[in-house]
Design goal:
alpha/beta; three-stranded mixed β-sheet; 18 strands; 27% helix
């Protein structure tokens, strides 16, 4: 998709979703809500089934994190001027600075001034003027987008509320700082790190303080995230300062115990390397305070452009930074321009840091039961690992050097093994029946690589978190598991592998469940009304909304359960009926051989 087409499509979609703002946007019939910070006007939108709902787009929850607030904890925004805030969406807020993962031709986009949220509520929940303090009744879903902690949007173009607004629920979609702006750290008070997670925390506090004005119940708040957003939900559970801020949690294909969410082991070294890439001289001789002050003076766009410098060359997969004491691995991969290198993420902060978010590793906190006791719904799709194996499809230069880089990538993405026999163990376990004959991983190996990444980065961390949770009686809240196994006509594989020729079916891949939760008009066409896929959308969104209201997962439509000690997963799978296209049944999620293999692998 060309950049020109994207711009045109964006304009058309904005005109389509905001019909009420033409002419006078602040007429008497537009939605209006008053909160502690002031009053705002929104706009009318239509759900998938044509129900009218209210949208308040671009509501600030923090001061712009610029200047002295770059690489600093977020600060609540000041009340706005006497006049109403324009939250109609006529002038969309910029996303947080990033390079688009799914549409890389758009280049670097966004601004530092990006800490805004969107609120959507069904029309029937609207409070009449003067009665906004009446009893709140609706549950609220607060959505945290994914994107590897370096990209993602809360825009209605990719996280549209149209599908959820057919149910009695309020939806809040939040933005948080990404990449260096959200996660750069010097390991001390100069820049403690985890700013993106602290942005999420501040947004959740905003919801708790203001959601009643929108008709929501502050005692029925559910946080929900996908991928890095799902890992963020898990991390928010481990921040005890969130007590009472939310009452349910949903992690879609994301877990804080996975290697790609593990805290960086030497964030100060990474910050100094970042400074060198930006052309800052003597970066390794500065104090951390001097370093941060200098980094605050650099033009924001230059940070995102500089990320490619973390790769050795255009087709490089890994950069390994050596310090005097240890080897520190920062990068995951970059394959051409499609996947920017992922270097930033959570860090462990010193206990002396004011209002620290994470003072120990997630693995340690979770294993000790140091987390909030709220119901947690979490699960995966069959081929989540494709998000990491897809780049192999673009490899064309197969050489001994390329194969060595690929194998290094394999270990690095999986978390980096500590012993020399880790790679042979991996190759024997997964490739014993399909030898590479010393050649590169190619298209023929994509399914095996997907399985490797799926097990090591999604299934195993999930199972580990469930097993450890069961060992701590202090946490009485249940964990519910799901497996989204419905195959529809659209898939994110068409975006992750756009040059798939000849066509290959990659199954149900990372992000595919989102197609049935959010409207993403910039990526996929709408389902026909009453089509099987529209019915799956209604069922999937109902599952999430019911959980947000009750804290309990739905029962199997087949009425079958298992007596296994490990909790069963609610599997959502295709049926042979167009009238009822989705079957809900319980399935055995736990694979002991798989669990034991990865336990040994990560014990190296």
């Amino acid at each position: 998709m060309s950049a020109r087409v994207v711009v045109i499509l964006t304009t058309v979609v904005l005109l389509a979703i905001l019909p009420s703002v033409a002419g006078n946007p602040f007429g008497q019939n537009v939605p209006r809500v008053c909160i502690q910070d002031g009053c705002m006007h929104g706009s009318w939108m239509r759900s998938i089934h044509g129900e009218r709902y209210e949208a308040f787009i671009g509501v600030p929850f923090a001061k712009p994190p610029t200047g002295a607030l770059r690489f600093a904890n977020p600060v609540p925004n000041d009340p706005w001027a006497d006049k109403d805030l324009d939250a109609s969406g006529r002038i969309p807020r910029a996303p947080c600075l990033q390079q688009n993962l799914f549409l890389p031709e758009r280049g670097v986009e966004g601004k530092e001034d990006c800490l805004y949220l969107n609120v959507y509520r069904p029309f029937l929940s609207s409070k009449k003027e003067g009665k906004q303090n009446s009893t709140a009744t609706l549950p609220t879903l607060v959505y945290i987008h994914g994107g590897g902690f370096l990209a993602g949007y809360n825009s209605p173009l990719v996280a549209g509320a149209e599908k959820l607004m057919d149910h009695p629920v309020i939806l809040v979609t939040i933005a948080y700082r990404l990449g260096a702006f959200g996660f750069l750290s010097t390991g001390d008070e100069a820049a403690s790190g985890n700013f993106g997670l602290k942005d999420q925390r501040l947004a959740l506090r905003w919801v708790q303080r203001n959601i009643e004005a929108f008709g929501g119940d502050p005692k029925l708040v559910t946080i929900m995230g996908h991928s890095a957003g799902g890992a963020s939900v898990h991390l928010q559970l481990m921040h005890l300062g969130n007590e009472g801020v939310f009452q349910r949690a949903i992690s879609l294909s994301g877990n804080a115990l996975t290697p790609w969410s593990a805290p960086r082991t030497n964030p100060e070294q990474l910050a100094r390397t970042q400074a060198e890439l930006l052309g800052i001289k003597d970066a390794h001789q500065m104090t951390t305070s001097e370093l941060v002050e200098t980094l605050r003076s650099i033009d924001a766009d230059r940070f995102v452009y500089s990320y490619k410098g973390f790769t050795v060359s255009f087709n490089a997969y890994l950069i390994v930074i050596y310090t005097k004491k240890k080897q520190n691995k920062f990068a995951f991969y970059q394959n051409g321009s499609r996947y920017p290198v992922i270097v930033y993420g959570p860090v462990v902060e010193s206990t002396t840091v004011k209002d620290a978010f994470l003072t120990d590793t997630p693995k340690e906190l979770w294993s000790l039961g140091e987390h909030l006791s709220v119901p947690w719904l979490t699960g995966i799709v069959p081929n989540d690992g494709f998000i990491f194996s897809a780049p192999i499809l673009k490899d064309t230069d197969c050489s001994e050097k390329t194969f060595a880089q690929q194998k290094t990538l394999l270990l690095n993405v999986l978390g980096g093994a500590k012993q020399s026999d880790a790679l042979p163990t991996l190759m024997e376990h997964f490739f014993n029946n399909q030898s590479t004959n010393g050649q590169c991983f190619t298209k023929e190996h994509v399914n095996i690589l997907t399985k490797v990444f799926n097990e090591g980065l999604f299934e195993y961390p999930l199972i580990l978190s469930v097993r450890q949770h069961a060992n701590h009686t202090r946490s009485k809240a249940p964990i519910y598991l799901y497996k989204f196994n419905y195959k529809g006509p659209h898939s994110y594989s068409s975006i992750l592998a756009p040059d798939n020729d000849p066509p290959q079916d990659f199954g149900i891949v990372h992000c595919d469940e989102l197609i049935y939760i959010f409207r993403a008009p910039i990526l996929f066409p709408d389902f026909r009304r009453n089509s099987p896929d529209a019915k799956v959308t209604k069922q999937m969104t109902k599952l999430l909304v019911d959980f947000a209201r009750t804290g309990v997962a739905p029962k199997s439509t087949e009425g079958k359960t298992s007596s296994s000690d490990f909790p069963q997963a609610l599997e959502l799978i295709n049926s042979n009926s167009e009238d009822e296209p989705l079957i809900q049944k319980y399935t055995n999620f736990y694979n002991e051989d798989m669990y034991n293999f990865w336990t040994r692998f990560y014990s190296y």
